[in-house]
Structure formats: C-alpha cells, structure tokens
C-alpha cells in the first residue's frame, strides 16, 4: 500500500472524526433544551436561543483565533504533533460535555472554546504536509481527503439522532469522544511529517515523491513564514475573501439545518438527523468526483487557473442560488432536492480556491491556510450571528428567506475578486531567500 495512500486515509478519517466531535452538539442541543411548557427534568435545560447561539458559536470564535497559531506551530513542531495533540484535546472535551452541562452552561462554553482552539490548529497542520508528500499532479485528488469532514457531519447527525431517540443526549458525547481518542492512537503510529521519515515507504515511492516536489519544496518545517509578504499578496487575499462566501453558505447548512428541518419542515428528531446528515454523505462523493475531474482537466491541457476558477464558481454561485430557492419553496421534496445539490456543490471548492493555496505556496501552505482561514472562518460565527439577528421566529418562512437571501448575496459577491485576481503559480515568497520576480503579485498591483 503506497505510503501517501495511508496519509490520505489518515487525513480523511482525521477530519471525519474532528467534525463528529465539533458537530455532535448541533443536533444534541435540540434535545438538551427544554420547551417552555415542559416540567423540570435533570437532563433538560432552560437555555434561551441566545445562550444556544453562544454555545454553538463560541467554538468558531476560538477556531478563528487559532489559525495563525496553527500555522506557526506546524512550521515549528510539524504536522504529526500539532494534528495529533489537537485531536486528543478535542476528544477529551467531548467526554466532559454532559458533566459540564449539568453544572452550568458556562462550562459548556469553556469546553467548546478549548475544542474550537484545538480544532483550529488541524487545518493548517494538514495543509502543511501536502506539499511534502503529494506530487502536483495528484494534489486535487488528495484534497478530497479533507472532505472526510463531510462524512463526519453526514454520519454524526443520523447517528446522534438514533442515539438520542433511544438513550438520550449524553451518550452522544461519550461516543464521539471515545471515537476521537481511538483515532489518535492510530495517528501516532502511522503519521510522519516527511516521506523520508517513514520507516516503511518503498524506495521507488520515496524517489518519485522527492523528484515530483523538489522544484516547489525548499526549506520546509522550521522555515520562518514571511507573514508580511503573505499579507501583501493579492492571490492569498482573494482566496481568503472568496472562501469567506463559501464558508458562510456551509455553516448556514451545518448550524441551522437541524433547526430548519424541525421548525419549518416539521421532521422529528430521528428523521431530522437523517435528513440533515444525508447531504453531507453525498458531498464526500461529489468531492471525489470534483477533485478527480479537476486533475483530469489539468492533465488534458486545461489551464490550472481556469480549473480553479470553474470549481470555485460551482462551490459558491450554484449553492448560493439554490439556498435562496430553498427559502422560496414550500414543497418538501423540492426543498430536500435543492438542499442535497447545494451541499454537494459546496465541496467543489476543494478543487478550486482551497487547492489554490498549495498552488501559490507549496512550501508555506500551512501559514497561508492559516491566514486565509483567519479571514474566511470568521464567517462561521458571523453567519449565525447575522441569521439569529434576522430570524426571531424560527417558524417564520419570511425570516428564513431573508437570512438565506443574505447568504446568496455574500456567496456571489465574494466570488468576484477571485474571478479577477486569482493566480495559480508559486509566489516568490514561497521560497527562502528568493528575490521578488514576476511570479509574485503584490496587493498594490490590484
């Protein structure tokens, strides 16, 4: 088995587990909160919608804060240490949520904050390893491994709905936390920062990888990120801006999907979990298809930059239009069909702007991803804040239409800078002690 395929499986399963642990509460909180007329029960809490929004949103506040720390830590300590310890901390917090909830919602907020910071380190860490392990011709396909998070979301919602319907909400957190801890034991045994560190890689595969990445990879772990150059780079900025729109859409589906399914479409908790999660299962398959097609197009002579722009458009413009259609339709089947298509299309971003990060900075993909995610992941808490400001009555289709319409506008408007100013060549600051040349596009030039 090729060592880089093992890395693919570790990346895929790692993001699957990570998103199980971060999203379990999105559906569990539906059962954790008591209805106004419900008598007191020890496992039900009278939390306001604002308290619920804080519990769900605080994860993402700290997630954003952690991005630059993740890029710096990965350059210093390597992917294996940063990703592994981050996952272990997140798993430990999941196991403690039931106890914390019974004490005070503030303790749940604290645990979600730790989870958010720890999870914020994972993406820069995994991006950093791609430049060393994956030849350029395989990178779009490898990016589909990041879509393990779609399977994580897709499995979490129906699994949690099934568990809650039988045993209540506390076992949800024990289950996801235990799975996370088990995954960590595999990661420490099988993950390595560089191909040359791997004790079981074949000489043929090692030589092939090193020859394929030699032109782009110079320096590496321990190389100091040139943050000033990254901050002044137009290609880095347009990636950050356009993915802000995609993340806005994505978190409207993730965070408000179960609420919309329950209060507007009227599904019970078990069916809610199934229907909220199923589109994300499909989205992994769509990611594999999109990333495979992207590599095929590049291999058949289509310009890499054009490929990135096409798939970025599919990931934002198409679901941006569909989410507005969801709000305008009162037909359950039509809503579910549009929901499935929209969530599936969002994954095209991993053959578009998200893969573009490695195109422009294979040597510093972790720090550039940290820079981009600091900006675009702010949508993960701005979007729910904006939606909660608009949607005062979760049964009101008119209010949901306004919230979804805002998501449409954000998704389309943020795509336009990418369409104009994106690049697909390594930037000069990707290399240590390399003078500026035409491959670098400074922010001032736009």
TrEMBL record:
GO terms for cellular component: membrane. The keyword Transmembrane applies. One of its GO terms (biological process) is monoatomic anion transport. Keywords: Membrane, Symport, Transmembrane, Transmembrane helix, Transport. One of its GO terms (molecular function) is symporter activity. It comes from the Eukaryota. The chain crosses the membrane at residues 5-25, 45-65, 77-97, 117-134, 146-165, 171-190, 237-257, 277-298, 310-327, 333-352, 364-387, 399-422. InterPro entries: MFS, MFS_dom, MFS_Na/Anion_cotransporter, MFS_trans_sf. It is found in: Membrane. PROSITE patterns: MFS. Pfam families: MFS_1. Its main location: membrane. It is a multi-pass membrane protein. Residues 10-426 form the Major facilitator superfamily (MFS) profile domain. This is Putative sodium-dependent phosphate transporter. It comes from Phlebotomus kandelakii. The lineage of its organism: Eukaryota, Metazoa, Ecdysozoa, Arthropoda, Hexapoda.
């Amino acid at each position: 088995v090729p060592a880089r395929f093992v890395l693919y499986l570790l990346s895929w399963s790692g993001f699957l587990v990570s998103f199980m642990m971060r999203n379990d509460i999105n559906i569990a909180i539906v059962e954790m909160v008591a209805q106004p007329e419900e008598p007191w029960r020890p496992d039900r809490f009278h939390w306001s919608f604002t308290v619920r929004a804080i519990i769900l949103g605080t994860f993402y506040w700290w997630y954003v804060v952690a991005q630059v720390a993740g890029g710096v830590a990965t350059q210093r300590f390597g992917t294996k240490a940063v990703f592994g310890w981050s996952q272990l901390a997140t798993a430990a917090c999941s196991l403690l949520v039931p106890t914390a909830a019974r004490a005070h919602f503030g303790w749940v907020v604290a645990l979600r904050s730790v989870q958010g910071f720890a999870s914020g380190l994972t993406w820069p860490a995994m991006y950093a390893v791609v430049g060393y392990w994956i030849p350029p011709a395989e990178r779009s396909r490898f990016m589909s491994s990041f879509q393990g998070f779609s399977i994580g979301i897709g499995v979490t919602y129906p699994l949690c709905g099934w568990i809650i319907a039988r045993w209540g909400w506390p076992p949800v957190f024990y289950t996801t936390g235990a799975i996370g801890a088990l995954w960590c034991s595999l990661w420490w045994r099988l993950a390595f920062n560089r191909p040359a560190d791997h004790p079981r890689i074949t000489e043929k595969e090692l030589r092939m990888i090193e020859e394929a990445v030699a032109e782009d990879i110079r320096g590496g772990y321990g190389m100091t990120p040139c943050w000033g150059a990254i901050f002044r780079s137009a290609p880095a900025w347009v990636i950050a801006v356009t993915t802000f729109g995609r993340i806005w859409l994505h978190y409207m589906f993730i965070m408000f999907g179960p609420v919309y399914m329950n209060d507007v479409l009227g599904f019970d908790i078990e069916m809610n979990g199934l229907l909220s999660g199923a589109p994300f299962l499909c989205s992994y398959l769509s990611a594999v298809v999109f990333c495979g097609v992207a590599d095929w197009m590049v291999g058949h002579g289509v310009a890499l930059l054009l490929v990135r722009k096409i798939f970025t458009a599919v990931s934002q413009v198409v679901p941006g239009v569909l989410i507005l259609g969801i709000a305008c339709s009162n037909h359950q089947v039509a809503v579910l069909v549009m929901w499935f298509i929209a969530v599936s299309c969002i994954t095209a971003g991993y053959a578009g702007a998200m893969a573009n990060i490695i195109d422009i900075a294979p040597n510093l993909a972790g720090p550039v991803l940290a820079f981009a995610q600091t900006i675009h992941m702010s949508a993960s808490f701005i979007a729910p804040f904006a939606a909660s400001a608009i949607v005062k009555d979760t049964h009101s289709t008119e209010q949901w239409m306004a919230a979804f319409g805002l998501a449409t506008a954000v998704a389309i408007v943020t795509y336009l800078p990418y369409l104009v100013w994106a690049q697909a060549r390594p930037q000069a600051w990707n290399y240590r002690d390399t003078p500026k040349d035409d491959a670098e596009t400074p922010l001032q030039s736009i």
